[in-house]
Backbone:
């Protein structure tokens, strides 16, 4: 049975950092894969897990850039992979499975946001293809290693931006409706939550639990390259001089704080026996009334909309994803 969306009394909070979350963790012998581990909050996720003794594999499109970013970080391995290239995902997973190592933590952190209308080589809308389908394929391919861990966790990086759109099953690829960058982003982030819900339902019998995460609003990473300063100012997340406003109590965080919930979901013993939930501020988030949500980038109220954790939609998305991947 899926864990309900109720807070459980975490000792951490919105201002906690990823390093604080792992401060008393002993992860020697554990293996993690962190997509997006050489960018934004993924870097701090990688740093935190490695500092606690885990071996962290970071798949990256640009190996030299990743090596520069992660230089000197303990326990890190870098491998080639492109989430928009199905063959690249297959090749990465094959290489990892050939090592015969168990996979204890799969943190699907990579993503893009509010891009202009683009399609991948299959004709799929690029935000849905990158943020959801690529990670779906990767997770499915790595299931043997996740099962062999005898207690693995999958962490799916979503966003409060899931409130911009449910998954529109009748027109996921924007073939019939006018393309909107934030609607496409919201749809992909809702898909990230639904993926965690269904992955947890399907895989918990194999000792695998899944969680979805909102990291907070973090300005200054590559994720926001398509969002203008004017939009960020209107949202109240940067000041008049263009500097990020850091106020964890309102969900506006630095990268160290932004990585904390991902790490908490991966390693917290408090979550033993739980899964299929959306988390924020190192805590299971409550369900929220859709009519109470504030629209726009600056809406920081923690919580998850009911459509993002709907089990029927989660099952439908899983089956559709398998069809789309052939």
Residues:
């Amino acid at each position: 049975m899926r864990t309900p969306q109720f807070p459980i009394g975490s000792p951490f909070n919105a201002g906690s950092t990823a390093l604080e979350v792992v401060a008393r963790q002993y992860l020697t012998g554990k293996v993690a894969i962190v997509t997006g581990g050489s960018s934004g909050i993924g870097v701090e996720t990688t740093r935190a897990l490695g500092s606690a003794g885990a071996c962290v594999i970071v798949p990256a499109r640009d190996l030299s850039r990743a090596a520069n970013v992660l230089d000197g970080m303990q326990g890190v391995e870098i491998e080639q992979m492109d989430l928009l290239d199905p063959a690249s995902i297959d090749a990465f997973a094959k290489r990892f499975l050939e090592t015969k190592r168990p996979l204890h933590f799969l943190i699907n952190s990579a993503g893009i946001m509010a891009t202009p209308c683009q399609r991948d080589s299959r004709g799929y809308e690029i935000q849905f293809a990158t943020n959801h389908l690529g990670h779906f394929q990767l997770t499915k391919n790595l299931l043997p290693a996740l099962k062999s861990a005898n207690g693995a966790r999958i962490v799916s990086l979503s966003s409060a931006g899931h409130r911009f759109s449910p998954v529109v099953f009748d027109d996921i690829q924007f073939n019939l409706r006018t393309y909107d960058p934030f609607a496409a982003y919201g749809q992909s982030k809702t898909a990230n939550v639904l993926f965690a819900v269904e992955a947890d339902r399907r895989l918990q019998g194999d000792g695998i639990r899944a969680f979805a995460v909102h990291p907070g609003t973090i300005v200054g990473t590559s994720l926001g390259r398509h969002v203008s300063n004017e939009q960020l100012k209107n949202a109240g997340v940067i000041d008049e001089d263009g500097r990020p406003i850091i106020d964890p109590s309102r969900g506006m965080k630095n990268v160290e704080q932004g990585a904390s919930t991902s790490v908490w979901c991966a390693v917290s013993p408090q979550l033993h026996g739980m899964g299929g939930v959306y988390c924020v501020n190192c805590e299971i988030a409550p369900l929220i009334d859709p009519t109470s949500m504030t629209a726009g980038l600056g809406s920081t109220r923690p919580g998850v909309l009911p459509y993002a954790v709907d089990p029927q939609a989660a099952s439908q998305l899983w089956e559709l994803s398998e069809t789309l991947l052939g």
User: Anything to note?
Assistant: The chain has one domain: 18-321.
